[in-house]
């Protein structure tokens, strides 16, 4: 059995969202989900942030993920479009609990939006919708 240190919640979320058809359509194409603020835009940025819990750090843990919908650098992406991208990403993360268990893959048991999201542009003025999601999972058995 693997321990919790082998589970990368950020990578799990990025992989799931990158292959989510509804989110890809809302964003306007593939290659728009990752951990960096980089073109093409609009895009979803996922980063693991402090918080969550993992009693004993062995089997089950909750990880806090910041979910951001980022607009074009020239500020032309409409605010409603970013809100739609954000809400679609959060909805898609909730669908992780229904994902079939695959050998060697972590199992997501619970997803909770800790904030409903809000408009908070980057310091550069780039449009951004941001919120936090808690993802509870355990690593796959060997």
Automatic annotation (TrEMBL):
Domain of life of the native organism: Bacteria
The protein's name in its UniProt record: DUF3168 domain-containing protein
Native species: Kitasatospora cinereorecta
Lineage, uppermost ranks: Bacteria, Bacillati, Actinomycetota, Actinomycetes, Kitasatosporales
């Amino acid at each position: 059995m693997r321990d919790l240190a082998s589970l990368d919640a950020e990578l799990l979320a990025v992989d799931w969202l990158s292959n989510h058809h509804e989110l890809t359509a809302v964003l306007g194409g593939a290659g728009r989900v990752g951990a960096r603020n980089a073109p093409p835009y609009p895009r979803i940025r996922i980063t693991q942030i402090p918080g969550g819990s993992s009693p004993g750090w062995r089997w089950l843990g909750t990880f806090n993920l910041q979910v951001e919908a980022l607009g074009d650098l020239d500020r032309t992406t409409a605010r409603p479009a970013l809100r739609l991208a954000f809400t679609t990403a959060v909805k898609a993360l909730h669908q992780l609990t229904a994902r079939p268990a695959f050998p060697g893959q972590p199992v997501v048991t619970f997803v909770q939006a800790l904030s409903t999201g809000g408009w908070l542009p980057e310091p550069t003025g780039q449009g951004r919708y941001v919120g936090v999601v808690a993802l509870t999972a355990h690593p796959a058995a060997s």
